[in-house]
Amino acid sequence: MKTLIRWSKFNLVGAIGMVVQLGALAVLCRLLAGHYLVASAAAVELTLLHNFVWHVSYTWRDRQYDSSRINQLVRFHLTNGMVSMLGNLALMRLLVDDSRLPMLAANSVAILCCSVVNFLLGDGWVFAGKARGIPYLAR
User: Smallest Cα–Cα separation from 81: which of 136, 118, 112?
Assistant: First the structure.
């Protein structure tokens, strides 16, 4: 599959995931009445699980894998999860506390900043599949 088509699919899943994350963040901030960073972390985790399911069944469904879904989920959390969690929390702190940007706007900026790195990690390692041989990130 051409990279541009896969990038488009990735962004469609990401856009839906962004709605999930922003909705979860809004609800969690109201329910928990705690610090927005705790709600942000929980919203990111929920979105990671959502996006993983869609990436397996839609974005990278054409690839065959040597590893189990559990191994892929672990790799997804180690890459996309780490980028999303650290990127979101760092940017949220900077944008909300220092720049006084509204919480949902700040979270939108954080999500967009992490997306390119997450696509490259997903395509090159998490969902590399058999046909790719050694993932280009490991070379």
Answer: 118
Q: Which two tokens stand for residue 27?
A: 């609800």
Residues 101 and 116: beta-carbon distance below 8 Å: no
Q: What is the pLDDT of residues 10-53, one digit of tens each?
A: 999 999 999 999 999 999 999 988 678 899 899 989 999 999 99
Residue 65 has pLDDT above 80, yes or no: no
Say whether pLDDT at 137 is over 50. no
Residue type, 22: L
Secondary structure (3-state) at 65: coil
DSSP-assigned letters across all residues of 80-125: IIHHHHHHHHHHHIIIIIIT---HHHHHHHHHHHHHHHHHHHIIII
Which residues lie closer than 8 Å to 56 by C-beta, 6 or more apart? 69, 72, 127
Residue type, 4: L
Position 109, amino acid? V
Cα–Cα distances in Å, from 65 out to 13, 56, 61, 79? 20, 10, 10, 17
If you ran DSSP here, which 8-state letter would residue 84 be given? Answer: H
Quote the mean pLDDT of the chain: 87
Three-state DSSP class for residue 134:
coil
